[in-house]
C-alpha cells in the first residue's frame, strides 16, 4: 500500500513506494524519539512486525537505521517493540550477506552499548561479528564478544572460539590493529609458531592496498601508521613468530614461496626500522623464493637504493659471497 499522509494517522507508518522509505525510517534518521514512539503506536498490531522490520531503499531496517545513527534510545525502543536483530544487514559494500546481521553491523560501527543491547536480545552470536569488530578496530566490541563465548565453546555458526580468534587475527594484522592483535593473542593463548609466522607476510603486503571501504579505516601511508606497522611486527615476534623462514603463499597475486624480506622489499616504501627489526631477529638476507631470487631482486626491481645499500652492507659484514 502507498502511504498517504492525508488519509489519517493509522497509515503514517506505511512504506512510501515513491520515496522508498517510511516515516519510521525518517523519524529515526532525525532522532525524533517521540515521533518514533507515536508512529509505532499507530501501527495496527497485526501489521507491527512487518512494519517495524521493513527495509528502505538501502536495505536497512528501522533498527539498523537507528544503529547507523548511534541512537541508543531508538534501538532500545525498537527492540522493545519487536524489531528483529537477526535480520541480515547491508555489509560494508552495501550487500546483504548471509552471515552479516545486525550484531555484525553494530560491531562494525563500534558502538559497544548498542552491540550489548543487540546481543542481549539474541540467543546466540555468530563468529562474523568478531571478524567485523577486529577488522574495523573496535577493541571494546572484540572484548564484549569474547566475554560472551567462553573458552572451549563455539559460536552459533559452529565455529570454535579458537578458530574464530585465529581468523580474526588476520584482519587485525592486515589493518594494523595493534591493541586488538594483542588482545586476541592474550585471549586465546595462541601459540602456533607456523601460523604466527605466516601472519608476518600479511603485514607488508597490506601496505600496498588500503581498504577504503572499511569503517574506521587506517591511512597506511602516514608516519603514525608506519609506527603501528612496526608494532604489529614486534607483537607477532614476541608471540613467537619466526622471521627466518620461507613460507608458501597461495592467496597472494604471486603465489609461491617467499620470505618476509621478499615481502618487505616488494613494498613501495618499506620503513627501514622494519628492515632493521627483522634482521635483528634473524631474517635471512640470502633466502630464496620460488624463482630462486634473494630479497635483493624485488629491491632492485623497485629501484629501492636504500634497501640495496643496506642489503650490501649486511652481506659484506657476514662475509657471504
Automatic annotation (TrEMBL):
<keyword id="KW-0040">ANK repeat</keyword>
<dbReference type="InterPro" id="IPR002110">
    <property type="entry name" value="Ankyrin_rpt"/>
</dbReference>
<dbReference type="Pfam" id="PF12796">
    <property type="entry name" value="Ank_2"/>
</dbReference>
<dbReference type="InterPro" id="IPR036770">
    <property type="entry name" value="Ankyrin_rpt-contain_sf"/>
</dbReference>
<feature type="repeat" description="ANK">
    <location>
        <begin position="58"/>
        <end position="90"/>
    </location>
</feature>
<dbReference type="Pfam" id="PF13637">
    <property type="entry name" value="Ank_4"/>
</dbReference>
<keyword id="KW-0677">Repeat</keyword>
<protein>
    <submittedName>
        <fullName>Putative Ankyrin-2</fullName>
    </submittedName>
</protein>
Amino acid at each position: 500500500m502507498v502511504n498517504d499522509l492525508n488519509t489519517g494517522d493509522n497509515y503514517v507508518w506505511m512504506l512510501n513506494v515513491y520515496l522508498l522509505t517510511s516515516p519510521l525510517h525518517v523519524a529515526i534518521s532525525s532522532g525524533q524519539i517521540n515521533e518514533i514512539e507515536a508512529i509505532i503506536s499507530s501501527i495496527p498490531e497485526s501489521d507491527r512486525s512487518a512494519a517495524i522490520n521493513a527495509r528502505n531503499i538501502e536495505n536497512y531496517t528501522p533498527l539498523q537505521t537507528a544503529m547507523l545513527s548511534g541512537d541508543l534510545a531508538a534501538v532500545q525502543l525498537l527492540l522493545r517493540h519487536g524489531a528483529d536483530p537477526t535480520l541480515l544487514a547491508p555489509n560494508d559494500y552495501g550487500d546483504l550477506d548471509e552471515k552479516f546481521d545486525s550484531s555484525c553491523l553494530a560491531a562494525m560501527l563500534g558502538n559497544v552499548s548498542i552491540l550489548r543491547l543487540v546481543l542481549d536480545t539474541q540467543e546466540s552470536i555468530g563468529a562474523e561479528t568478531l571478524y567485523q569488530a577486529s577488522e574495523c578496530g573496535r577493541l571494546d566490541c572484540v572484548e564484549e564478544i569474547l566475554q560472551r563465548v567462553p573458552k572451549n565453546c563455539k559460536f552459533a555458526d559452529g565455529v570454535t572460539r579458537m578458530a574464530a580468534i585465529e581468523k580474526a587475527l588476520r584482519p587485525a594484522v592486515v589493518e594494523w590493529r595493534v591493541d586488538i592483535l594483542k588482545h586476541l593473542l592474550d585471549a586465546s593463548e595462541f601459540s602456533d609458531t607456523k601460523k604466527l609466522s605466516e601472519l608476518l607476510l600479511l603485514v607488508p603486503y597490506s601496505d600496498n592496498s588500503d581498504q577504503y571501504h572499511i569503517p574506521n579505516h587506517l591511512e597506511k601511508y602516514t608516519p603514525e601508521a608506519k609506527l603501528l606497522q612496526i608494532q604489529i611486527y614486534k607483537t607477532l615476534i614476541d608471540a613467537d613468530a619466526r622471521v627466518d623462514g620461507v613460507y608458501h603463499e597461495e592467496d597472494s597475486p604471486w603465489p609461491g614461496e617467499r620470505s618476509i624480506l621478499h615481502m618487505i622489499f616488494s613494498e613501495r616504501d618499506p620503513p627501514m626500522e622494519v628492515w632493521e627489526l627483522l634482521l635483528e631477529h634473524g631474517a635471512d638476507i640470502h633466502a630464496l623464493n620460488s624463482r630462486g631470487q634473494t630479497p635483493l631482486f624485488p629491491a632492485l626491481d623497485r629501484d629501492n637504493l636504500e634497501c640495496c645499500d643496506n642489503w650490501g652492507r649486511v652481506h659484506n659484514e657476514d662475509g657471504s659471497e
